Amino acid sequence: MRLSLGRKAALFYAFLIYLFLYAPIAILITYSFNQSKLNAVWTGFTFDWYVRLFQNGEVLEAAKTTLAVALLSTIAATVIGTLAAVGMYRYKFRGKTVLDSMLYLPLVIPEIVMGISLLALFSQIKIPLGYFTLIAAHITFSIPYIVVVVRARLDGFDRSLEEAAMDLGATPWQTFVKVTLPVIAPGVVAGALLAFTLSIDDVIISFFVAGPGSTTLPLKIFSMIKFGVTPEINALSTLMLIVTLVVVIIAERLRMKKNA
């Protein structure tokens, strides 16, 4: 069956979009195996940069800090954001519209403004910059994203399920854990993955609130730009990409198994 001209054009357009999105990633992975230190000329295949990566203590420490901050901030933000989304959806009270609007404020303000404001807050209350301020800042900007995703999931929620559970003798907490939470779980997981990704990727806010000894990987890479980024960073990025893909595949398999 021959394709029409319009369908061919649509397929070609889609090919260009995917090429634009994934070609840089393919180049990064390819040059992580390049013998040359320069990411411009291919001189041969090698695993040396992966070996050197595991010998680079500063980069590994920055990666460890990034993962620890992302994990802790994601857990805290997911709990707070999920409870906030459920509360805002379920209850009506005076000032709800204003509070709802304020939850979306961190999504629209520039990151540099939020970074400066958090730095000013920590300075005013005399909290030294370090791991605590870094995690607190990441929790702050992650919560609105989780609230938005979970609220979107709650929009299609059937409230009669909760009413039926309470009519059968379930307490509010039991109703939430055994009825509400399983239904909104895909939204909670999606929000958590989004928050985790944003935390790992953040540069601007972390630049203002990170103290000595709490340098994240994006900040480390940013500081290395003036001297040139070595293929060790390409190797680390490739490994992080593989880990991310594995997590996403496992999550998708579990979702499909649950829905089957």
Name a few traits of the molecule.
260 residues, globular, single chain, mainly alpha
Radius of gyration: 23 Å
Structural class: mainly alpha
Q: How many E strands?
A: 0
What is the CA-CA span between the terminal residues?
34 Å
Order of helices and strands: HHHHHHHHHHHH
The percent range for helix content is over 70%
Q: What coarse outline follows from CA principal-axis ratios?
A: globular
> Biggest sheet: strands, sense, closure?
none
Unreliable spans are none
Beta-strand residue fraction: under 5%
How many helical stretches? 12
User: Overall mean pLDDT score?
Assistant: 83
Describe this structure in words.
The protein has 260 residues and is mainly α. The chain is 77% helix and 0% strand. It contains twelve helices and no strands. Helix 3 crosses helix 7 (131-154), helix 3 (57-90) packs antiparallel against helix 9 (172-201) and helix 8 runs antiparallel to helix 9. 24% of the residues are buried.
What secondary-structure arrangement, pairings included, does this model have?
Layout lengths: L4 H27 L16 H6 L3 H34 L5 H8 L1 H4 L2 H14 L6 H24 L4 H9 L4 H30 L2 H6 L7 H8 L6 H29 L1
Helix pairs in contact: 3-7, 3-9, 3-11, 7-9, 8-9
Please provide a brief summary of the model.
By secondary structure, the protein is mostly helical. It contains 12 helices and no strands.
